[in-house]
Amino acid sequence: MTIAELLQTAVSRLQDAQSDEPQANAEWLLAHVLNVTRTWVLANGSFELSDKDQKIFEKLLARKEAGEPLSHIVGVAPFCGLDIVVTPDVLTPRPETEDLVEQVAARFEHKGHYTFLDMCTGSGCIAVALAVKFPNARVLAVDVSAAALKVAQENIRKHKLQERVQLLQSNLWEEVTGVFDLIIANPPYIPTENLAALTREVQHEPRLALDGGADGYEITRPLCQAADNFLAPGGLLALELDDGQAWPLARGLAEIGWQAEVKKDIFNVERFVFATRK
């Protein structure tokens, strides 16, 4: 069977299974099996696969049909031009969070000697991306989950950042000390009652990283309430939130003495809050 024939069948099956992005997922899966780029797959539709590769692809495709995230199947996800190791213990990095990092990075000097804190680090994707973008920065990556921190440690090693990225297991601020030029977080923000309506793919991800409590602010609220104790003068607090949450949080921050602004993500959703102390 050729690549074109196999992809046609795979896309049809993923469409029937109501999988997210069936065309893209089929192409990524096949690229993973063949150990080539997705571009190569698209450019070589007449290439004939071996029986062995077809059998491997079939097994992976069945997992995708069942709703398993692509990142769990192939073990990595792209983020800010980097390959990030992903397991079921962490959220899959998403384009919105890439956009958060890019918008934040534009506010700092490339060669500055900064200290950054990535709260709720999960896979460590934000911490790793910031350390790569800022070669003189030091980053503290914090998470309550020991399992998530193991994945973050793997990503730190993968990108040879052990000397500049430190991990800390802490329930928000409990074990944190020091002051930081940036506090950035993609915290759990989905209201508990909305979790059941998430896609099958997202349902495979850790509830701990998704569940934001009754109103979605259960983690974000205490994160913000104590953030000024850890932020250097002129430092920035940067948060990713759910659609509809950014303005209420920005107004709440203003009430306790912050200067806050809301920014849109690449999908035109008002998702980010950037705040500094007045």
Secondary structure blueprint with pairings:
Elements: H1 3-16, H2 22-34, H3 38-43, H4 51-65, H5 70-74, E1 76-79, E2 82-85, H6 95-105, E3 115-119, H7 125-133, E4 138-143, H8 146-158, E5 165-169, E6 180-185, H9 200-203, H10 220-227, E7 231-240, H11 246-255, E8 258-264, E9 270-277
Parallel strand pairs: 3-4, 3-6, 4-5, 6-7
Antiparallel strand pairs: 1-2, 7-9, 8-9
Question: Overview of this structure, please?
Answer:
This protein has helices at residues 3-16, 22-34, 38-43, 51-65, 70-74, 95-105, 125-133, 146-158, 200-203, 220-227, 246-255; strands at residues 76-79, 82-85, 115-119, 138-143, 165-169, 180-185, 231-240, 258-264, 270-277. α1 packs across α2 (22-34), α1 (3-16) runs parallel beside α4 and α2 packs antiparallel against α4. The mean pLDDT is 96. The strands form two sheets. The chain has a seven-stranded mixed sheet, with helices on both faces. It has a two-stranded antiparallel ribbon with strand order 1-2. It folds into two domains: 3-67, Helicase, Ruva Protein, domain 3; 88-277, Vaccinia Virus protein VP39 (Rossmann fold, 3-Layer(aba) Sandwich). The longest helix is centred in the first third of the chain and has 15 residues, at 51-65. It contains eleven helices and nine strands. By secondary structure, the chain is of the alpha/beta class. β8 and β9 (270-277) form a beta hairpin.
